[in-house]
Amino acid sequence: MPKHRSYAIEFKRQVAQEYLAGETFHGLAKRHEISRNLVRIWVAKYEAGSFDSDVVAADIVQAQEARIGALERLVGKLALENEFLKGASRHVRQPTSEATSVVAGPVVSRSQKDAD
What we know:
Blueprint: H1 9-20, H2 25-32, H3 36-48, H4 53-90, E1 100-101, E2 105-106, H5 112-115
Helix pairs in contact: 1-3, 2-3
């Protein structure tokens, strides 16, 4: 499946300016090998101010701030989980190396008299 082409903002701005200077959608689409509808979309965005470098930079900053916020929340969640698990591990009894009985304590070895 072919990938979608992406175009630089400068190119989009240039095409929109050419249309506003008097070119037709059909002529621009044919010359630049793009669809007429794409030219229409770019012209509308240009007129709305979406191709201004300040607007684009603000969008990038906003996207990065949102990503940073999501990552900070994830770090906080993981830190809480880490602290919880550290606290839980302090309260767990460590197994001893000797075998013990719940009722009588350490296992008593059998004497020779019991074996007969």
